[in-house]
């Protein structure tokens, strides 16, 4: 076999691999990985906001329980929030709030506030942990 034939054969063998690689690439849908919880007080949105990333635990810090992602201890509403009150998670683009066995409950505003163990959150959705009210906003 001549050098010319060997070079031609090597190039021909590589071409299908290049085509396969191009076919394997698919567009990936953008998934928002962060959100904001904006505190409402007296029915009015405040300038207090917490940026979260999934999963995020919300409650009041206690050295015996360990760290949390959103600490409401410094807020007046924090008195009615459990140490580990709720967790917000995002799974396949769907955000959810999950109650962690809190004493004062987790509520989602639908027609009225409804106590939930787990509920989907959408952009602009209002929910409450005890009497701490929030608006969920996608970042």
What are the SSEs and their pairings?
Elements: H1 3-24, E1 34-41, E2 44-53, E3 56-59, E4 70-71, E5 84-91, E6 94-99, E7 106-109, E8 113-116, E9 118-121, E10 126-129, E11 132-138
Parallel strand pairs: 3-4
Antiparallel strand pairs: 1-2, 1-11, 3-5, 5-6, 6-9, 7-8, 7-10, 10-11
Task: List its traits.
single chain, 139 residues, alpha+beta, five-stranded mixed β-sheet, 44% strand
How would you characterize this protein structure?
There is one protein chain. This protein has a six-stranded antiparallel beta sheet, with no helix packed on it. It has 139 residues and is α+β, with helices and mostly antiparallel strands. It is 16% helix and 44% strand.
Summarize model confidence as the mean pLDDT.
85
Strand content: 35-45%
What gross morphology would you assign? Answer: globular
Tell me the number of strands: 11
Q: Biggest sheet: strands, sense, closure?
A: 6 strands, antiparallel
Radius of gyration: 25 Å
Q: Could you tell me how far the N terminus lies from the C terminus, measured between alpha carbons in angstroms?
A: 63 Å
Q: Enumerate the strands of the largest sheet in spatial order, edge to edge or round the barrel.
A: 2-1-11-10-7-8
What are the low-pLDDT stretches, counting only 5+ consecutive residues below 50? 8-23
Q: What structural class do the secondary elements suggest? A: alpha+beta
Compressed to H and E, one letter per element, the order equals HEEEEEEEEEEE
């Amino acid at each position: 076999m001549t050098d010319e034939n060997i070079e031609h054969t090597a190039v021909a063998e590589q071409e299908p691999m290049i085509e396969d690689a191009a076919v394997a690439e698919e567009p990936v849908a953008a998934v928002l990985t962060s959100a904001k919880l904006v505190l409402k007080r007296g029915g009015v949105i405040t300038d207090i906001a917490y940026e979260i990333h999934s999963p995020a635990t919300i409650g009041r810090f206690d050295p015996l329980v360990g760290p949390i992602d959103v600490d409401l201890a410094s807020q007046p509403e924090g008195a009615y929030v459990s140490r580990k009150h709720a967790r917000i998670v995002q799974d396949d683009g769907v955000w959810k709030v999950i109650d962690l066995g809190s004493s004062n409950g987790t509520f989602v505003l639908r027609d009225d506030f409804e106590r939930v163990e787990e509920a989907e959150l959408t952009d602009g959705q209002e929910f409450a942990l005890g009497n701490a009210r929030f608006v969920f906003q996608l970042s």
